[in-house]
Amino acid sequence: MNLIDISITTEWNLCSGCGVCVGICPKHCIEWKREAGMYQPVINQNSCISCGSCASVCPGLKHQYEKLPDRAAVQGNVLLSCNAWSKSSDVRRISASGGVVSTLVHQLLESGIYDIAFLVDSYDYHQQLSTKPVTIQEMKDVVSSSYPKSRYLPVSHENAIAYVKNNRMKRVIFVGTSCAVRGFKSAVKKLHLPEENYLLIGLFCDRVFNYNVMAYYQQPAFCGEKKLENLHFKNKESGGWPGNMKFYFSDGSIAYQDKSERTKVKDYFMSERCLYCIDKLNVCADISLGDNYTQQDSSPLGSNSVIIRTEQGLAAWERTASLLESREISVNQIMEAQYVDWRLNNLCYGKLKEQEILKKTGQEIVLNVNVMTNRKTQEYQNRWKSNIQMLHAGEMYDIHPEELQKQMVKNKKKQKPGMIRKLFSKVYHLIR
Ligand SMILES: Cc1cc2nc3c(=O)[nH]c(=O)nc-3n(C[C@H](O)[C@H](O)[C@H](O)COP(=O)(O)OP(=O)(O)OC[C@H]3O[C@@H](n4cnc5c(N)ncnc54)[C@H](O)[C@@H]3O)c2cc1C
Questions:
Q1: Rounded to the nearest 5 degrees, what angle is found at the Cα of 99, between the Cα atoms of 95 and 100?
Q2: pTM of the prediction?
Q3: Which residue among 290, 365, 390, 424 is least enclosed by CB atoms within 10 Å?
């Protein structure tokens, strides 16, 4: 397939909204358009010079999974694996997990090892989230800053790409989910930038919500007559880590919903591209980390599981060691706790997507996803199709959120614990 531009990414629902294409475009001719709860790049064909830069760095189109199905590719390189958390209880309290990302970023900026970091400072469902440049002046201390915590939405990294393009010698900390890290790496390669200038902090990621999820929670079942102003998926204030959902209403009041609510909804409001991703542990980063779901070191204040993957990651880790508590654990413990094996199902979905594109266009698209030979293709075909239907249903119910609630209740009644769930009409839950 001649990948001239990223129109193909959006046409085939392969966009993760990472914004790398927008940042690299030499003509600045890619804009965002909200569609089906995702911000999607749209090319202004009048100014496009068909250089192909956007498609060449797009992580939605290319994932280099290499030698699968062995576990090594899902695990990635490991120099050190541990559980860790900030020594400061205040930092832990305001962060997503154990505050390790914020501690690393702050320490590395303060010591002058890195010049700038790209972080998110807002949480808004009505406009696209983007990372912003942050220096030590802007992040004097972690606790009073607005950067910590996870935003479970697609985030654009266009500003980071534009920055490294124009500031070749600056040393930059990049924080992102696996698609963003892969896109950033491709851009660095494409632009012939010095790789050693960039520290890639990769967040573990189990699929991302789309922006339509806010409409769902605006329903009377959750909000009564109140207008929902904002929603945080994980907040430690009520019950500590891993955190319940926090609702902010326009009259200034707040409410909490049990964490089980967020997991019910994810399957309906997510990016289709996440169905084809197997890289939960962010294998291309220098340091990958997520919540600590292992049996050890758990605390209501939160802690991280960390995998140091490169020498550059190790150097950054050692620089920050005095501010962190850590205990070595095996990478297997992390993988088990993160249920990464389930991710291998996505390989089959990726292969099915490839086949669909090939059938319809006669052209080949490289998702570089292999199929495990012992899988029953028909079963996966059905499951994948139902997942796509479900996502489409999510779009439909964005207009009628009450309808989705009814469908979910109906669906829940039909589910029998311990039995394989069958495909029901339009809405279907993933089998875990
Ligand atoms: C979409 C998403 C899905 C995740 N899924 C999992 C999972 O399945 N399992 C798991 O163990 N962990 C998951 N994580 C990681 C986890 O939520 C924490 O982000 C991670 O453990 C770091 O915690 P911390 O306390 O060290 O981070 P903090 O100190 O709170 O800092 C978080 C940093 O991440 C940046 N950030 C927040 N959201 C984004 C974003 N969407 N894109 C780019 N940068 C961002 C912030 O600016 C901040 O600098 C996910 C994170 C995200 C964003």
A1: 150
A2: 0.91
A3: 424
